[in-house]
Amino acid sequence: MATKAPTQTEFGEVSRIKGIVFKYVSFVASIVGILALGVLLAYVFWDALGLESAGTGWYLAYTGTLLVPLLAFFAYARTRPEVVAGAFELFSLTLAGVMLTVASVIILSIIASPAVWFAYFLTVVGPLLALFVYGQYEREATWVGLAMLLTLVAGPVVGTLGLGILTTLGSLLGSPGVYFLSLVIPGAALAAFLAAERFDASRRLSLGIGVALPALAVVAVPLVDTVPAISRSVWLIALVMLGLPVGYAVANTARTRERRSAFALPVIAVAGFLAGGAIVDAIGATKPSPWLDWQYLTSSPSISNAAEAGLYPAIIGSIFLIVLVSVFTFVFGVGAAIYLEEYAPDNGVLGTATRIINVNISNLAGVPSVVYGLLGLGIFVNIEAQLGPLTYGGFGVGTVFTAALTLSLLILPIVIISAQEAIRSVPSSLRQASYGMGATRWQTIRNVVLPRSLPGILTGTILALGRAIGETAPLIMIGAATTKFSPPAGLFSKLTAMPMQIYAWAFLPGEDFRYGVVAAGVVTLLIVMLTMNSVAILVRNKYQQEAN
Amino acid sequence: MTSQDMASETEAETDDDSLVTTDPGKGGLDENDDRGSVAQTGAGTVIESRDLDVFYGETQALQNIDLAIPENQVTAMIGPSGCGKSTFLRCINRMNDLIDIARVEGSLTFKGKNVYDTDVDPVALRRRIGMVFQHPNPFPKSIYDNVAYGLRIQDKTENMDEVVERSLKKAALWDEVSDRLDDSALDLSGGQQQRLCIARAIAVDPEVILMDEPASALDPIATSQIEDLIEELATEYTVVIVTHNMQQAARISDKTAVFLTGGELVEFDDTDKIFENPESQRVEDYITGKFG
User: Fold this and answer.
1) Using one digit for the tens of pLDDT, what is the confidence trace for A194-225?
2) Exposed, middle or buried by CB within 10 Å (0-12, 13-18, 19+), for B53?
3) Residue B237 maps to a domain
4) Interface predicted TM-score (ipTM) over 0.90
5) What pTM did the predictor assign?
6) Of the residues B189, B205, B221, which one is the last residue of a structural domain?
7) Are B109 and B41 a contacting pair, CB within 8 Å?
């Protein structure tokens, strides 16, 4: 060894103890949070789904029919990336389709009545779609972008002014007619387009697909009528919102030979579920009695009978809120971020002003939510101002509009900061390239900066929306109800939201409320939030792939 | 399409594509004006600077630059790092406007019109003076969309497929990418990306192409391809190139400007003269490698 051979160089040893200690401290720190969340989730799911009461037979049956086959499939797919990709696409698009259907049913038929939706479809959504399609085919028509902007601004005004006439039109058509015109027809056009462009289907086949969708919509109506839970409207919405993503995933998976074995996943899932049910019935095993069930999602809250309690008004209220908040924050947040990053001067007096604004936006992001609640109470509820003939008296105590504005103020700083970060991360060499080609500032932002920063902007916005949907304190401050027995009917009607309802239940004396019902509420809230986050991840991945 | 056809097309287009947006009739740069002003500033001079000073905040980056860049030739600018040669290049198409603290004094004329006059729209100016940057910077779009970018933003969307093909051919890239125009430009190699950037710049038919060390991030083979290309381009365009590589300047340029530390233009002459028999001792020292 070195010590016995003095001619050899002695390197000595460098101590790594501090480094090793640091590494494990960091590891523990990162694990603690995840573990805590995992324990909470397991605890809540256990209560909400009532898994405690299930018998051994039930567990054994489903382990045999569902869990083991699924694990076998994963083991098989592990070495086959194509199968994994196919299975992931089938799973995620089906899930996305279900979520889209639920969201569309809630937004297009419960929050906005079919007639109101039709009014805005005619004045805003329809013209926008038509202009977009026209712009894709006539690339030389540069007025299209401007016309879309105009539609976006003027459409809602026209729709609101002509609401009376337009809703009459919608009522004449009836709600299935409205959805047929506004969803199924555009959906059929989209399906035909995708078939021709993405899957290189022949002209005849893609045309056939375009005709088959509306035909199916009509032909299946007698069948749908036999199922009481599905109304004709829900059928039409689901056909487009669920049918299209699933159809796309199936077509895409069937197209590649190596991917085809991915179809085993849905087969295993469905067959395993049915077989498990049959075995449980046959051997008479005890089933779990979940708190989170269809009844819970569709009934009004109860404060006396835990078994009858439901979250329906709060779910509708929360989703109504989130739709409004996302519109407000996206428009104002992204607009502010673009201005601060791309237009605002960096030097001189105005540069100082920009810096002050930037610092204060960061500060605002840290202001406690209860303070924003107070702000909302002050400026959206309590202030009365007389401006000539116009009187501003706030938007009402605890109304949807007041709550949406307050929550928008709360998350706006976070949205602005994350959008700024995303815009800043666009390499300046790309901007230079664009300016060097003789692009104007707007052209550079539109063609280079925004496409590149959109994934970051969307991720930041959706994560911030996740925070907004879970907020309680600002809603309490503006006087939102904790318990309400009907969903909000319009912008200026009172609402309750999921966290408010959960909060109210948590203080009831009954143990069933405090554990079962609250847990079911928490799980519902988490599912909505995780869905939003997964949409964020999907959108980000899609745009990142396009950007690379 | 022959180059003559293209020239007539350019003429037709530049007429309504004037540099000045406010009042095209007065002091604008239409084709007729150009001829007159070229005659004034000496035959074949496209860009001329007089007493040009550039400041970044308090620091002076260029001092009293007097320079006349000839038409349809390659003019190289060499000098050590930080001597202001890139700054000068960016003055020509007013890319320095994008830096808030940059300030320009003196005059820099393009075809007889001072580009720093208040009635000059820098965007319109940049549409007539193309630029290629040091690091290849294709947009994260398809190869086709990269070349078509300038055409789209300038509303020159007629015969777009043809123009894209012609530009890629001129940039000696067509044979390598003709069967994958829809692939992402980022999948190309560094040298191909830089040629794509050149194709993108010439697609809109500029009058001058500015190149800021276009080969410094490339390997020797890609570099020699770019050099061949520059010599090709000089038959149709005026090329101004900044380079660190003295051999490169000697190989491809007709005229060479030597900038030395402090933002001075020390010598500007025919390339042969600069490299064989420079007037200034400092230039000789720099070229022979005694400093810099």
Assistant:
1) 888 878 878 888 888 888 888 988 888 888 88
2) middle
3) yes
4) no
5) 0.80
6) B205
7) yes
